[in-house]
Amino acid sequence: MGSEIPQVHIFFFPIMAQGHVIPTVDMAKLFATRGVKTTIITTPANASFFSKTIQRSKESGLDVDVKILKYSTEEAGLPEGCENADLLPTSRDEPKDIVSKFFKAKVMLQEPLERLLQECKPDCLVAHMFFPWATDAADKFGIPRLVFYGVSVFSTCAMECMTLYEPHKHVESEFEQFVVPNLPGDIKLSKKQLPDYVKESVETDFTKMLKASKESELRSYGVIFNSFYELEDMYADYYKNVLGRKAWHIGPVSLCNRAIEDKAERGKKSAVDEHECSKWLDSRKPNSVVYVCFGSMANFNSAQLKEIAMGLETSGQQFIWVVRKEKSNGEEEDWLPEGFEKRMEGKGLIIRGWAPQILILDHEAVGGFVTHCGWNSTLEGISAGVPMITWPVSAEQFYNEKFVTEILKIGVAVGVQQWVSTVGDFVKKEAIEKAVKKIMNGKTAKELRNKAKALAEMAKGAVAKGGSSYSELNALIEELKLRRH
Ligand code: UDP
User: Which family does this protein fall into (predicted)?
Assistant: First the structure.
């Protein structure tokens, strides 16, 4: 660092959900590799998820820090320790307003964040879109606010077109398909694949928050996307030229993780030893294992899990299957078919809890990925060059499915018909078996794999020195430096 130019300092403020905290930590590390001082602002429990990563980054010479905001779950009316969306109770007996309380509780963070902004005067605040007050908070101290959505440019444009033209209001039935108007690519959806809050057009706390978020985005300095220009060039141009927004594409941010520990310890502590997991994969042939994981939020019921088990078994394919259920002593696991694990010994590995996802995806033995199409998982699959079976559950995942299967053409849809928050639509074993066979073996599998591998190369090129994401990140940092004069 030159002595006359003080180091650029950026605050990162993620919403408390694994799918946002994980790429934010990667992003902070990425900026720090370019000599930027980065500070992640979060709550105590969330900070503990990535304290080791930060420690390792500091030891390697990166200027990455964490500041913790006091957060009272008790005051918010939430169960103790419920600081991250993946810790929210999902049982049907829980009060329905718990998610709404979780969103409201974020407001409690405004005052302490403003105090930090005043004290540290960073050059920029990168805050998640679900903090609609962040633009004004930063503005009070003359600090530009950048929005981080954590979703693709494609889905951002699609959602924008849905809000502008409301095509779902002109169909006769829930399953009738409509084209998303004015969006390049002729994307067709049905009303069933939309979230309730879009379909029902009833104003709720959540829709009010979305509206406020959009307004605050329009007044912000711009948007950062975890994506790379070549992957979504048509939509990156559309976002800029048609929707008139300012954006930087700086991803895939997960590619900043090179060491085994960094790949293995993202988000929570892995439920398997990473070396054991690698050893299991090492003894398999290239492209012979299908990896099945549905992110941090989806929570399938026992009937669906049993169906997945049966579909995997009849596909005859080797697999790693991540199930968000811990094994409790003595309790019967009603989601496993009788004798399944015994029959699958040596053929399939079930990870109960958190998996070292990018370590697994990057292994040459993995030849396919059954994914819920969360944007991080989707981009991680692209970066690893694996074809995907798309199984959207909720959020903006149905858009990502379209992007993977129809725009990129590196996956096949398992056939989910409707958007159902966290629990998902029911998918039958026959559909699972068919899709697994299709992406793992035969002509289609080969074609999908070749395309996927080419995209993975492109992703690596984008973050390498001189690549598009590398250059856009540099341009952003330079712009922030110039703002000081
Ligand atoms: N992830 C992981 N291990 C797991 C489940 C998820 O490392 O067992 C990571 C995954 O690599 C991704 C993130 O958690 O970075 C999930 O984000 P995504 O956007 O895919 O889905 P969400 O959890 O937000 O639905």
Answer: Belongs to the UDP-glycosyltransferase family.
Helix (H) or strand (E) holding 12: strand 9-13
pTM to 2 decimal places: 0.95
Cα 398 to Cα 95: distance, rounded to the nearest angstrom? 27
Q: Which of 272, 320, 376 to mutate to test the pocket of ligand 1 (most atoms within 8 A of CB)?
A: 376
CA 142 – ligand 1 centroid, Å = 34
Lowest mean pLDDT among 39-48, 143-152, 169-178: 39-48
Look at the chain and count its residues.
485
Q: What is the pLDDT of residues 359-370, one digit of tens each?
A: 999 999 999 999
Say yes or no: ipTM exceeds 0.85: yes
Ligand 1, pocket-test mutation among 29, 296, 357, most atoms within 8 A of CB? 296
Q: Find the range with the poorest average confidence among 47-51, 341-345, 462-466.
A: 47-51
Structure tokens at 274: 């990473």
In 3D space, the residue among 378, 398, 396, 383 whose CA is nearest the CA of residue 458 turns out to be 383
Give me 413's structure tokens: 């849809």
Class of domain 270-460: alpha beta
Whose alpha carbon is nearest atom 7 of ligand 1? 357
Strands (E), 267-345: 289-293, 318-323
- Yes or no: say if 298 and 393 are a contact pair by the CB < 8 Å rule: yes
Cα 295 to middle of ligand 1, angstroms: 4
Element (H, E) at 172: none
- Residues near ligand 1 (Cβ within 6 A): 18-19, 22, 266-267, 293, 295-297, 322, 354-355, 357-358, 374-377, 380
Contacts of 351 (CB under 8 A, 6+ apart): 271, 272, 277, 320, 321, 322, 323
- Domain spans, the chain: 9-166+195-255+464-483, 270-460
Could you read off the pLDDT of 324-335 as tens digits, one per residue?
987 666 667 889
Asked if the domains 9-166+195-255+464-483 and 270-460 are classified in one and the same CATH topology, the answer is yes
Q: State yes or no: cis peptide before 89, omega within 30 of 0.
A: no
For 370, the enclosing helix (H) or strand (E) is strand 366-371
* Joined tokens for residue 388: 């995907």
